[in-house]
Amino acid sequence: MLRVAVHFHLYYMDLLDKYLERISLLNNSKCFFTIYLTSSVVNNETELGKSNLKLVQTSLDKYNLANKCKIITVPNIGYDIGPFVHVINSIDLDSYDLVLKIHTKNEKGSNVTALNGVKAGDNLIVFAENIEGDATVYQIENANVIVDGNAKK
C-alpha cells in the first residue's frame, strides 16, 4: 500500500474547503495518508486563531479527514517553505513513499496566481484518481513522479 505524507500549508482561510475537498479524494484511493496541516492563522492563542481552528476542525470532519490530520501552528516566517521544512524535519520520512506538498495561493491577485491555484487543485485530483494498488507512476503537471524517489520531466 502506498504511504503518502501530505503537507498542507494553510494561510488563506477562504480556500480551506476547496483544498480539503480535493485532499479528501485520497479517502477513495488505495493509499495510507497523513495530513500535516501547518498554519500561522490557526492557533489557540488569539480569538481569531481559535475561531479559525474551529473552522478547520469542522471542515476536517465534513470531509472525513479529522482522524488523518495533525494540525501544527507555525510562525508566519518562510512563506510555505519554512513550515514544509519544519514538517520534513519532524516526521519519519522512511514511513512514507511520497510527500505531497500543497499550499493555498491567493487567487485574488494576478491571473498567473489564480491559474496556479486552480492547477494545484486539479493536479491533486489527477493524483488522487490515479492511485491504483501497486502502480508507481503518476502524472502530476507534466512530470512523471516515481515512487522510488526518481523523478524526470
How much helix, percentage-wise, in residues? 25-40%
SS element count, helices:
4
Strand order of the largest sheet: 3-2-1-4
Round the Cα radius of gyration to an integer and report it: 15 Å
Q: Based on DSSP secondary structure assignment, what is the total number of beta strands?
A: 7
Q: What spatial form do the alpha-carbon principal axes imply? A: globular
Q: How far apart are the termini?
A: 25 Å
Mean pLDDT: 76
Largest pleated sheet:
4 strands, parallel
Instruction: Find the structural class using helix and strand composition.
Output: alpha/beta
> Any low-confidence stretches, pLDDT <50, length ≥5?
110-153
Q: What is the strand content?
A: 15-25%
Order of helices and strands: EHEHEHEHEEE
What does it look like?
It contains 4 helices and 7 strands, in the order βαβαβαβαβββ. It has 153 residues and is of the alpha/beta class. Residues 110-153 have low confidence and may be disordered.
Quick summary:
The strands form two sheets. This protein has a four-stranded parallel β-sheet, with helices on one face. It is 35% helix and 25% strand.
Topology of helices and strands:
Layout: E1 2-9, H1 16-23, E2 31-39, H2 47-62, E3 69-73, H3 81-90, E4 98-103, H4 111-129, E5 137-140, E6 143-146, E7 151-152
Parallel strand pairs: 1-2, 1-4, 2-3
Antiparallel strand pairs: 5-6, 6-7
Helix pairs in contact: 1-4
Protein traits:
153 residues, alpha/beta, 25% strand, disordered C terminus, 3-stranded antiparallel β-sheet
